[in-house]
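Kindly draft a sequence, keeping tokens residue-aligned:
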Amino acid sequence: MAEHRKALPHPTPETQDFWDGAKAGELRLQRCNDCKQAYFPPRPFCPACASRSVASFRATGRGRLYSYVINHRPAPGFEHEAPYAIAVVELDEGPRMMTSMVEVPQTPEALVLDMPVEAVFEPATETISVPKFRPAAGAVR
């Protein structure tokens, strides 16, 4: 495994299941057992109704490109990647998450809003894999 130079997450009890899922190649979200709202990021209570009756579930890993900005300035860990897109994906289950787009040119012509996307997982260490998104199979690239 190549040396990972980007900042890495430090899983907490609230986020451990999410990171365990990412390591297993699964995008895991949480859902409120009372109001049925799916949400991200993980937390021990529902952000919609404040219920503490929440459960983790395996999401489809599919969604749509909701928004992005293309960063042209190098940043620590990204020195060799500029320009790169900082994206927001709206998941099929409803929540939005900030992410990186991969396997697509980092240009406005290629990053089409509302484009179908799917999760991929980049191994960073032996215990952490980072979810990123690419155009879904069959999407125009």
